[in-house]
Amino acid sequence: MSPAAPPTPDGGAPRAGARVRTVERFSSPDTGDGSESDAIDAAAPDSGIAVSPGVARQLDIEPADPVRVTAAGGAQVTTATVAEQPGSGTVAVTDAFADRLGVSDGDEVVVEAAVPTVAASVSVAPVAALSVRGGEDVVAAALTERPLIVGTTVTVSLLDGTLDVPVRVVETDPPGVVVIDEGTTITVDSGPAGTVDADSGPVPSMAVGGYESTIAACRSALVQPLTAGDAYDAGGESAATGALVVGQSGVGKSHHVRHAAWLANAEFISLDAARLAAVGHEAAIDHLESIRARATRHARALVHVEGLDALAGAASSGSGAGPMTERFGSWVSRLREQPGVVVAAETREPTELADTLTRGDRFGRRIEVPSPTPADRTAIFGTLTRNLDLAPDVEPATVGERTLGYVAADLVALRAQMVETAVERFRTGTDSEEPVTVTAADIDTALSTTTPAASSAAVVDVPDVSLDEVGGLSEAKRELVRVVEWPLRYPAALDRLRIDPPAGVLLYGPPGTGKTLLARAIASTTEANFIAVDGPELFDKFVGESERAVREVFRQARESAPAVIFFDEVDALGATRGSEGGAAPERVVSQLLTELDGLEQRKGVTVIGATNRPDRVDPALLRPGRFDRTVEVGLPDSSAREEILRIHARERPLRDVDFQTLARQTDGYSGSDLAALLREASLAALEEQLGDGDHTPDDVSDLVIRGHHVEAGLSRVTPSARSYDTSDYDDF
């Protein structure tokens, strides 16, 4: 095509072969040395990219023609310069264009000829927080005679050239590559312009970290049917079925589908199932037909259905698929009539989809995107930080180990937080002109302020408490070592002796006796990941969400094995069926039984439950193969109380305190009561010193806890379990 070729009013069907993988390696020019970037500027002042004559012939473009360039940072459009400097299979770009693409030396990009559409409307806004009211005509002039796409940034000169203001395209109608003419409505909003979603098209390999098995599954189910279409075509239609991409929210399902489009060099077309379900029936049908028509215009197209659960048809509640779900299923079948089209649909819960969607001729393949392993998280972190300046003390593998429970979206949030921390440190430091470097301390700060988005009910960490820090409870500790530590630490020995480890252990006893601390300590001795679940917080008002949360906890444990799942207040999670509470507890108990029965393998996973009310635990949970070992965690005796007191006194300056006498005085106190007692004694010592006019708050050298301070603590802390009815424990 020539520079004078008019844009197509309807977007025009791209020519066959216009989108090709012409670039495998990326070379960034050195600006200011009179070489490649100068050649670009001389040939086309507005150009950000130079291609070789061979690449230009492949794309069928001439100098100053618009091209679309896709890389890790998303898609950008510019006009192309044809120059001899870039070698075969490479392109040269200016530093500014490289920054917008998010690429550096040696990265992959895709260049394709862009056929622009005349825009009905274009909305722009200054990148900074300012207004350009009165400068609309200047902005419009700057946008003419150049290709535009959402995210394009153009510098506008205002006030007779004394002020340069970058403005960003934030919306175009229609979407895609556009140009403006006299009929285009241009809206200039106040800044700052919002950030642009970089995930608007295919994702290159350099932007994908880890997940080798998922990538292999995508190649088999999505890429090969497109790249080896003849092998899949039969009788005028494609023998390739659609694929369900399964995984929790934020794990990277869309990212992997977009990467498959990159690998297949296919047109990527996205469909939001939630929006489809929200519009009227006729509007939904029209939208589906427009998507199908768009897909059939391309030699290869990957149609991505986001949020298929919105069209689930309420299968889990027993109802059949609705009319829209049936229509959607028929639409998927029609797409099979067009060779070169593959459909990938995302779902969190494939078991809740209507049967009409999971038929073998519709979504017959399944691609799992599990929670990332430590190696996956390390690779993702490396991908996210590839263009950051990291200090030598940053070890990606350590970050991968420390981010247990994080999915890809959480790691993106972590990256943003650590960069913000580093920028703030440099901004307030004396070396503010030095380049911003992210240090291990910045990452520590970011980790302390970010948590996995999916861990509101399940908290994952690696405990750092030992059994030596648990006072008393010698019999309970011995039992847990036998039934928890040994199976995780010595599985081969147990296998040789034909010892089947218990599926679960139930700790029961009054509040504050150390059940949670004991569970954390035993997990620490085995170097196992510890997944703490607050039973009541798992309940959700929406049908099916509580059961999904239980499944997710066990899946997370399997993927991070060896792991210990600790269900606190398990009586709330598995209340006796038939008691008050409705159907929700029954569904949760059923799901918990399913997981404990091992319908899904739990190798390397131990389950510990804790309860103050064993009488309220559903008896089905206590049968063999479930919580088949019970351990009482009772109130400490005198010697155990002395041990607990000495543990809590290790880091405190105590004088003239007789622990044996104090242990005898605290009959009926639990471990948490004893901790509260010493805490109150510490406050009494501080209160006494602050009331002494001869001391200031900074005089801490002679701050000591003495016997009369402990007596004050005894008067304020009483046994919390004294009023607790423990008669049910004897019956249990």
UniProtKB/TrEMBL annotation:
Offer one Pfam family short name for this entry: AAA_lid_3
**AAA+ ATPase domain residues:** 239-373, 501-637
Q: Where is the composition biased (Low complexity)?
A: 10-20
Highest taxon, organism lineage: Archaea
GO MF, one annotated term: ATP binding
Q: Does the keyword Nucleus apply?
A: no
Keywords, alphabetical: ATP-binding, Nucleotide-binding, Repeat
Where are the residues of the annotated region Disordered?
1-48
Against InterPro entries, the record matches this protein to: AAA+_ATPase, AAA_ATPase_domain, AAA_lid_3, ATPase_AAA_core, ATPase_AAA_CS, Cdc48_dom2, CDC48_domain_2-like_sf, P-loop_NTPase
Gene3D superfamilies xrefs:
1.10.8.60, 3.10.330.10, P-loop containing nucleotide triphosphate hydrolases
Q: Where is the CDC48 domain?
A: 131-195
Q: Which PANTHER family match?
A: AAA-FAMILY ATPASE, NUCLEAR VALOSIN-CONTAINING PROTEIN-LIKE
* Protein name per its UniProtKB record: Transitional endoplasmic reticulum ATPase
Organism the protein comes from: Haloglomus irregulare
